[in-house]
């Protein structure tokens, strides 16, 4: 009597093997596209070294991507024009395009980038804060998307992804802005924009999340010595080849935003907790969200204005405070006006106390301070450090390393483009 085999039928084995092979193939395609997105043109040897893939695998993967039209070969002349040209693989710029939109309190900023990551068009439009509605915002955005496409002589099908960002609370999966300083709880459904670009994937992100993403990507690309590896640098630098464990991005301005980027084994994970509306103190300072005691109610531009002019703290905040008004208060503070100085110090104190709680939960990460409020950082810094030192964690471990980067917009758009192109890559390799 023959014994029955305990192995699955051969057809199951073959199906599983095919599935595993296809999954590995897609992974290899994604790895090569990511390397070319981060590094630009790379030779066959450089791709193998960068990705860890065998030479034969690189040959197969680049062949597949060339046939799909996603990458192309470029010849680079040798030094002095001698010898055979060096062949590089690069993303084919015309393969797809992505749109980035930064929604700020008083303006809409648009950008269009090609598949190589080059920004080929940018413009801004003012927002009507007083009369604007979600429907009027969406109408303006739809018209602007059409303008972007027309100006670059593209077709709607050429847009592979639309990436939107705003301060406030966003529903990433649903493509919605749930709460914002301008519209409050009136939801904005961005999915209607896909009527203009039906082939695109839509993303909605918290603005400061993109800042943290771009800053961390830049950090990963830096040489180890520039990142402070083994240098004893204060502020979240771990001893290891990966450099920093991550970073915190703090955005100062009309709203207060925070992004946290964690780096582990070369992988980047980014989040954006609702820092501006974290409860900071049991007081009666009314926030734009309708609650009292939020960090933003003290540290946002309207909070600074209210304290400087000794406006009752339960006064309904303005939806938007012009930067010029805060500039006047700052000038007064630098000339010795005590209430103006007090307003910025209180703003800093709220920020420092909030940051101390974040550091207690997320270790000692370096902090990058961005946004229009950075021009007043010198006035807020004493309060920030005072607030940080009120935490036992900071008293034991010292102040985090803090750097100021005024050009927040560049970081926002860099984050937009990188994340949008990564999404297009996933569609290329069949993961989305």
**Fraction of helical residues:** 40-55%
The separation of the N and C termini measures 51 Å
Could you tell me the strand content as a percent range? 15-25%
Poorly predicted tracts of residues? 1-9, 224-243
- How would you sum up the major sheet? 5 strands, mixed
- The secondary structure category is alpha/beta
Alpha-carbon Rg, integer: 25 Å
What's the CATH class of the largest domain, please? Alpha Beta
Order of the strands making up the biggest sheet: 5-4-3-6-10
SS element count, helices: 13
How many strand elements? 15
CATH fold-level topology of the largest domain:
Nucleotidyltransferase, domain 5
Task: Tell me which oligomeric state these chains represent.
Answer: single chain
Shape: globular
Q: What's the order of the H and E elements?
A: HHHEEEEEHEEEEEHHEEEHHHHEHHEH
The overall number of domains is 3
Indicate the CATH architecture of the largest domain: 2-Layer Sandwich
Give average pLDDT, whole number: 88
According to CATH, the homologous superfamily of the largest domain is: ATPase, nucleotide binding domain
Task: Briefly characterize the structure.
The chain is of the alpha/beta class and 432 residues long.
């Amino acid at each position: 009597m023959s014994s029955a085999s305990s192995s699955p039928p051969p057809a199951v084995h073959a199906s599983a093997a095919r599935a595993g092979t296809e999954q590995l193939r897609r992974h290899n395609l994604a790895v090569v596209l990511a390397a070319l997105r981060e590094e630009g043109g790379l030779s066959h040897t450089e791709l193998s070294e960068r990705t860890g893939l065998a030479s034969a695998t690189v040959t197969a993967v680049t062949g597949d991507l060339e046939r799909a039209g996603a990458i192309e070969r470029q010849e680079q002349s040798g030094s002095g024009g001698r010898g055979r040209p060096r062949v590089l693989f690069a993303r084919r710029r015309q393969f797809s395009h992505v749109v980035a939109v930064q929604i700020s309190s008083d303006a809409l900023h648009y950008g269009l980038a090609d598949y190589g990551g080059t920004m080929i068009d940018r413009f801004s439009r003012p927002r009507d804060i007083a009369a604007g509605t979600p429907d009027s915002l969406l109408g303006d955005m739809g018209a602007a998307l059409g303008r972007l496409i027309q100006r670059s002589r593209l077709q709607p099908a050429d847009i592979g992804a639309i990436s939107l960002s705003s301060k406030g609370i966003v529903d990433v999966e649903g493509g919605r802005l749930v709460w914002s300083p301008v519209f409050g709880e009136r939801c904005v459904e961005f999915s209607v924009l896909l009527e203009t670009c039906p082939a695109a994937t839509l993303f909605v992100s918290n603005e400061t999340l993109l800042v943290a993403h771009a800053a961390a990507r830049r950090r990963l690309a830096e040489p180890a010595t520039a990142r402070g590896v083994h240098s004893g640098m204060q502020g979240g630098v771990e001893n290891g080849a990966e450099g920093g464990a991550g970073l915190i991005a703090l955005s100062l301005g009309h709203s207060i935003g925070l992004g946290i980027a964690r780096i582990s084994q070369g992988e980047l994970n980014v989040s954006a907790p609702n820092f501006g509306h974290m409860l900071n103190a049991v007081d009666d300072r009314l926030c734009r969200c309708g609650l009292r005691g939020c960090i933003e109610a003290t540290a946002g531009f309207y909070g600074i204005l209210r304290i400087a002019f000794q406006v009752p703290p339960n006064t309904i905040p303005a939806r938007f405070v012009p930067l010029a008004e805060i500039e006047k208060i700052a000038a007064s503070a630098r000339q010795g006006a005590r209430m103006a100085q007090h307003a910025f110090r209180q703003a800093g104190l709220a920020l420092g106390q909030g940051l101390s709680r974040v550091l207690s939960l997320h270790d000692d990460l370096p902090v990058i301070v961005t946004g229009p409020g950075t021009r007043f950082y010198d006035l807020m810094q004493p309060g920030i450090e005072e607030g940080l030192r009120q935490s036992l964690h900071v008293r034991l471990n010292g102040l985090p390393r803090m750097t100021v980067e005024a050009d927040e917009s560049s970081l926002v758009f860099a984050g937009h483009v990188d994340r949008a192109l990564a999404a297009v890559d996933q569609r290329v390799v069949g993961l989305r």
